[in-house]
């Protein structure tokens, strides 16, 4: 559904009127396209404290294809290496580094603060590194103009190149609707990527719920990145599913993901195994708990959570998920913040977060597979078009970017998780919500 307010504020009279009324001013977001694959301007690489990763970070930043310029007057990206900030006093260097440059950043820019995991043994280091989280989340709310701010934690002993895929994502138009997020890497070594334009070449990906909405967009972005895609949806959505498959050169698998033999049928559809499994299928059956019959509760838990657990377990243990594989599940900010009328849905989506955090480390150790989740906020789809007008408007505006996201914003995050280069990204839940105030 079109966001008419965003169009209105894109016109001079609309901007004038809404400013006079003190209304939100969403900036049009610049997303990835063949014509705009990169940020439009140079990158500023700053350091606070004594960093042990300066050279490694410089290499990773050079790999983004952006020009790193220490004198950039109008940087499109600013990376502040604060891994060496280990005390409350040291935080002054964070202020000293960013205060003079934050105003000069180009619209639609990216700020990435690099930290390191807070130490369980050193409470001064832990306090300083945790402080960076509050700092970044506040900065995301302040900077405006469609710009974003994130905290990327790189652990001591990270493998060379471990942060590269994440920096490529965060410092690009692909992360347009991601802000105020904290991502913590592991020490796992990245898998090889021969061609950055087709990082999923030679890989097979299956996307559930792919006949329409976010799932169709995920399938499209994974195909763009070179994967052979299998699109799955319920048999009654077969016409849309086949249309999506034909458009992408994908294979269609009409199947209800809650069927008892779902994992076996997925395995049969991928004789060479799966490299990427995206659990996107999801339903809502909203009702306040007092009015909710057991069947509405059960349907939502079954589709959104139980089938995700069952198929993931079976595809891992049967070896259908190849080593180096990626599981990406779909949570929701409702699973973080809770939502009136959505006890079933929020429980299912919080369950997905529990699954990811628990299984991620074990799946990596036992099967060489990472497990992550996206948690979309308000995304413009048929699901959200059905939301009553005033709640829909509130959902759109109550975030740092003052607008809803598009399915492609979620899809780009899934594609980043799915890359062979993202082996160090595991057990993470990335909110794709424009830094929604809900559950923030
Ligand atoms: N749209 C949003 O704002 C938003 C926000 C947070 C989370 N999400 C989540 O993102 C995912 C996609 O949402 P969407 O807005 O594109 O929804 P959508 O309703 O447009 O699409 C969901 C797809 O899943 C399919 N599906 C449902 N049950 C299935 C089953 N049993 N087996 C196979 N396929 C099934 C549907 O047929 C449909 O094609 C869902 O998991 C949803 O909970 C969406």
UniProtKB/TrEMBL annotation:
InterPro entries: KR_dom (IPR057326), NAD(P)-bd_dom_sf (IPR036291), Sc_DH/Rdtase_CS (IPR020904), SDR_fam (IPR002347). Pfam families: adh_short_C2. One of its GO terms (molecular function) is oxidoreductase activity, acting on the CH-OH group of donors, NAD or NADP as acceptor. PROSITE patterns: ADH_SHORT. It comes from the Bacteria. Residues 203-377 form the Ketoreductase domain. Belongs to the short-chain dehydrogenases/reductases (SDR) family. This is 3-oxoacyl-ACP reductase. It comes from Streptomyces globisporus.
């Amino acid at each position: 559904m079109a966001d008419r307010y965003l169009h209105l504020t894109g016109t001079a009279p609309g901007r004038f009127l809404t400013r006079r009324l003190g209304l939100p001013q969403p900036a049009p977001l610049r997303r990835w396209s063949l014509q705009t694959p990169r940020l439009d301007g140079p990158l500023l690489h700053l350091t606070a404290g004594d960093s042990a990763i300066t050279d490694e970070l410089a290499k990773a930043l050079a790999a983004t294809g952006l020009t790193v310029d220490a004198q950039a007057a109008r940087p499109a990206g600013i990376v502040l290496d604060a891994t060496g900030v280990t005390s409350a006093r040291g935080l002054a260097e964070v202020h000293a580094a960013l205060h003079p440059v934050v105003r000069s950043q180009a619209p639609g820019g990216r700020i990435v603060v690099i930290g390191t995991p807070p130490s369980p043994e050193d409470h001064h280091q832990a306090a300083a590194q945790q402080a960076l989280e509050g700092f970044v989340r506040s900065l995301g709310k302040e900077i405006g103009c469609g710009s974003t701010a994130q905290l990327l934690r790189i652990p001591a002993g990270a493998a060379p190149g471990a942060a590269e895929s994440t920096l490529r994502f965060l410092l690009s138009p692909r992360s347009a609707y991601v802000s105020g997020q904290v991502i913590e890497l592991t020490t796992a070594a990245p898998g090889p990527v021969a061609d950055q334009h087709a990082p999923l070449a030679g890989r097979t990906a299956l996307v559930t719920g792919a006949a329409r909405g976010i799932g169709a967009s995920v399938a499209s972005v994974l195909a763009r990145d070179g994967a052979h895609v299998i699109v799955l949806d319920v048999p009654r959505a077969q016409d849309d599913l086949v249309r999506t498959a034909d458009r992408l050169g994908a294979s269609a698998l009409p199947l209800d993901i809650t069927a008892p033999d779902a994992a076996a049928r997925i395995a049969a559809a991928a004789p060479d195994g799966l490299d990427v499994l995206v659990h996107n299928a999801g339903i809502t059956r909203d009702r306040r708990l007092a009015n909710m019959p057991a069947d509405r509760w059960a349907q939502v838990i079954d589709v959104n959570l139980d089938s995700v657990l069952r198929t993931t377990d079976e595809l891992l243990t049967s070896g259908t998920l190849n080593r180096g594989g990626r599981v990406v599940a779909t949570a929701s900010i409702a699973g973080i913040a809770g939502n009136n009328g959505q006890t079933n849905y929020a429980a299912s989506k919080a369950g997905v977060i529990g699954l990811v955090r628990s299984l991620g480390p074990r799946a990596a150790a036992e099967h060489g597979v990472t497990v992550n989740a996206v948690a979309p906020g308000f995304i413009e789809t048929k699901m959200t078009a059905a939301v009553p007008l005033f709640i829909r408007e509130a959902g759109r505006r109550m975030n740092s970017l003052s607008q809803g996201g598009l399915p492609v914003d979620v899809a780009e995050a899934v594609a980043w998780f799915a890359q062979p280069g993202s082996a160090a990204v595991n057990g993470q839940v990335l909110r794709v919500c424009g830094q929604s105030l809900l559950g923030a």
